[in-house]
Design brief:
Blueprint: H1 3-11, E1 15-16, H2 28-39, E2 47-52, E3 71-76, H3 78-89, E4 108-111, E5 117-119, H4 122-125, E6 131-133, H5 134-138, H6 144-152, H7 159-173, E7 182-185, H8 191-201, H9 210-221, H10 225-237, H11 245-257, H12 272-296, H13 312-321, H14 329-344, H15 352-365, H16 369-380, H17 398-409, E8 431-435, H18 439-444, H19 452-458, E9 464-468, H20 469-475, H21 480-490, H22 494-497, H23 512-533, H24 546-552, E10 558-561, E11 566-567, E12 572-573, H25 576-590, E13 596-600, H26 612-615, H27 623-638, H28 640-646, E14 647-654, E15 657-664, E16 673-676, E17 682-690, E18 693-697, H29 700-712
Parallel strand pairs: 1-3, 2-7, 10-13
Antiparallel strand pairs: 2-3, 4-5, 4-6, 8-9, 11-12, 13-15, 14-15, 16-17, 17-18
Helix pairs in contact: 6-7, 9-11, 11-12, 11-13, 12-13, 13-15, 14-16, 15-16, 27-28
Length: about 725
């Protein structure tokens, strides 16, 4: 089949990709290699297609109907065909959406003199008409005559070069006429037969996993399943927890059958209702609840901190069968403690389905499952962490993840900025793993790759601290003694919270190995105590990130406002909105609680809108101008003394957008607001919190009674 025909069939909804195929994973190097072969007429492989009137679920939005008759599916060659489509058509094929493409392979340029292929490089290509975007050629946006004219405007062209440009231009265009030899599975084949053939001839040699095959079968009797699962994955990814479809299939198997293997149990359509019911509970209750337990109790801000996400499956199964899918405090602590040890002792590093079978059996049958699961780990490895375990271990070792979680539990901060090492806002404040003793200095003193043992010491996790990106870049190769002394002076508790020895003599480069030994001892003692104490009932308070606070949603002590004075519906400044903000502050002051927090730049659906529109309406166009205007509003309404003593204004950055946090203390005096009535006359109104709303008390006697109760009795 010619490439031209393949593209036409895709555009005419005659050629599809089955949903069980892997997503598009090719990178630019793969695309460049394919088109080099196409241009030079090298072999590029064959296509395996299947004609069928009973296709499995299809990728994309198209849903098969019997009226479509026999359709053709690409079983092998999808990566090549997708690459060709994107570069020839300049857009995604209809079976993909933009969010599913992780690697952008468009923008490949060809040199019409040499037929070399390269991705755009400004210095080499910007002023050289010989370099042309392949897509522009195939879409007719550029002709060979355009290239010749551009060159002639710069220099004289020989007839030989003109002819070569024309020939090479036609050579590129002729790619559309290239044939892909096609092998066709007949229409009589069933899906199982088609997949078996796919296994045999698949060019990559990688079979579908049991979970992928189970998903293909589930999608056969529940066509919406894959889209629902993907939507959930994208939602969790937005909060830093990135999982694959496999993970959700393991979760479904765990909660429906209590096992981690035998995916074939999900193949039968008899499962349809049970799977749908289980998914509804997972989607609406369990998955979000477990992730929030990880964030708030285990100090896990991102899934990339977890060495095996399959440790979450037993916790998911336990929550699923719990009353109302909620756990008690001691249950949460025991689950977290087991999770930590499952990561530290690498419970699921091998034989994952078999170990899940065993662990899920315990979840299903034991009265104290996490105590028993911890016992299973202890049968294989000691729970106690020794100082020797740190020797030569780099950041890939699970001890480092445990260190990070422990530091967060202690309220640790970046040594240079004082910012919490919980999930921070803005790219500058992402976390990095910095060498305390700079590697450049260690390398110059023999701790390099020529000595394997010494190199391992230089990279050891005991020579690492958690810093924000902005601090790590600024720190560079500052000597450990100088840097740690500065941190000790600026943030006195910061070293202890990251288990860094306070003995300044150990900070000298000549005593590097003594420093490591001292820190190993501190870490072993700290981590063992931390793990032992998890199931003690005394509360341990870690720092809660602003993102976590926003995720809680509005309540009687928290409210969101999209803006201070920018009308998002009309896209104009609206000073009436300033009064709405002041109403909220008054209500927090007047309430029975401990005051409240207003977050500006976030809507009531927890979407981050930022403050850019507000900035544009104010002098200064920045945080300072915003804060000055807000404080002036408060002063004008209740006086400078109140604004200074009762209101704190701070700013945070989330995904490059500023938000403003306004904290209001519990007032000692009632606050009224002057609100114009219908005739423009100002009348005093009294606002209080009612749930997540700031509501007025209308009746004068009720206001008097409220003030008497609230402000005279404390």
């Amino acid at each position: 089949m010619q490439i031209r025909q393949i593209i036409d069939k895709i555009n005419d909804s005659q050629l599809f990709v089955p949903a069980f195929q892997r997503e598009y994973v090719w990178k630019r190097a793969d695309a460049k290699a394919l088109f080099t072969s196409l241009i030079r007429k090298y072999p590029t492989g064959t296509l395996l297609t299947w004609e069928t009137t009973k296709p499995p679920e299809l990728k994309g939005k198209t849903k098969y109907t019997p009226e479509m008759g026999a359709v053709k599916l690409i079983l092998d060659g999808q990566q090549r065909i997708t690459t060709i489509y994107m570069l020839l058509e300049g857009k995604l094929p209809p079976y993909y959406e933009q969010m599913e493409i992780t690697n952008d392979i468009t923008g490949l340029y060809v040199n019409l003199e040499t037929l070399d292929l390269e991705y755009f490089r400004k210095q080499a290509m910007q002023n050289n008409p010989l370099w042309v975007d392949l897509t522009d050629i195939f879409q007719g946006n550029v002709k060979s005559s355009d290239v010749r004219k551009s060159l002639k405007a710069k220099e004289a062209l020989s007839d030989e070069l003109e002819n070569l440009i024309d020939e090479n231009f036609e050579a590129v265009k002729s790619i559309k006429e290239r044939e892909f030899p096609e092998q066709i599975i007949p229409v009589t084949a069933a899906i199982k037969e088609a997949i078996d053939i796919f296994y045999i001839v698949n060019a990559s040699g990688v079979n579908l996993t049991d979970a992928e095959l189970a998903l293909a079968q589930i999608s056969g009797y529940w066509p919406e399943a894959r889209d629902l699962f993907k939507a959930k994955l994208f939602a969790m990814e937005k909060h830093g927890f990135v999982f694959k479809l496999d993970f959700l299939i393991f979760a479904l198997l765990a909660v429906t059958y209590g096992i981690g293997s035998e995916m074939k149990r999900l193949h039968s359509s008899d499962n349809a209702q049970a799977i749908k019911d289980a998914w509804r509970q997972l989607d609406e209750q369990v998955l979000d609840y477990v992730i929030n337990i990880m964030r708030t109790h285990a100090f896990v801000d991102h899934s990339d901190e977890i060495n095996s996400v399959f440790a979450l499956i037993p916790i998911i199964a336990y929550v699923f069968k719990a009353p109302k899918a909620k756990l008690t405090e001691i249950e949460i602590k025991k689950a977290v403690k087991w999770f930590y040890y499952s990561q530290l002792r690498q419970r699921y590093v091998s034989q994952t389905p078999q170990k899940l079978d065993k662990d899920l059996g315990v979840i299903r049958n034991s009265a104290e499952p996490f105590d028993e699961l911890l016992g299973l780990i202890e049968q294989e490895r000691s729970l106690e962490i020794s100082e020797g375990e740190f020797v030569g271990r780099d950041i890939r070792h699970p001890l480092f993840s445990l260190m990070r979680w422990y530091f967060k539990s202690q309220g640790a901060v970046c040594l240079g900025t004082g910012v919490s090492i919980r999930q921070n806002m803005g790219k500058k404040y992402t976390l990095e793993k910095d060498h305390i003793f700079p590697y450049a200095a260690l390398k110059a003193n023999g701790y390099n790759v020529d000595d394997r043992f010494k190199y391992a010491l230089a990279q050891e996790i005991t020579n690492r601290a958690i810093l924000t990106q902005v601090e790590n870049r600024g720190k560079s190769d500052t000597a450990a003694k100088e840097y740690l002394l500065d941190a000790k002076q600026k943030f006195p508790s910061s070293l202890k919270k990251q288990c860094i020895p306070s003995d300044e003599a150990l900070w000298d480069l000549s005593r590097f190995e003594e420093f490591l030994a001292a820190r190993r001892a501190m870490l072993a003692q700290g981590l063992n105590g931390f793990l032992r104490d998890i199931t003690a009932m005394e509360a341990k308070h870690g720092t809660v990130s602003i993102e976590d606070i926003i995720a809680e949603g509005e309540h009687d002590g928290l409210e969101f406002k999209s803006s201070l004075r920018w009308d998002t519906k009309e896209s104009v400044p609206n000073k009436d909105l300033e009064k709405v903000v002041l109403k909220t502050l008054a209500a927090f002051n007047n309430g029975y609680g401990d005051g409240g927090r207003l977050i500006i730049g976030v809507d009531d659906r927890q979407n981050i809108l930022g403050l850019e529109n507000d900035y544009g309406t104010l002098d200064g166009n920045d945080r300072d101008g915003f804060q000055l205007h807000l404080r002036n509003l408060i002063k004008a309404e209740w006086g400078a003394e109140y604004a200074a003593a009762n209101v704190t204004v701070t700013f945070h950055e989330i995904d490059g957008q500023d938000i403003c946090i306004v904290d209001v203390t519990r007032g000692t005096k009632p606050l009224f607001m002057k609100i114009p009535d219908k005739n423009g006359a100002k009348q005093e109104r009294f606002f209080v919190r009612s749930g997540n709303l700031s509501s007025p008390i209308e009746n004068a006697s009720e206001i008097s009674a409220y003030i008497q109760s609230r402000f005279t009795k404390g």
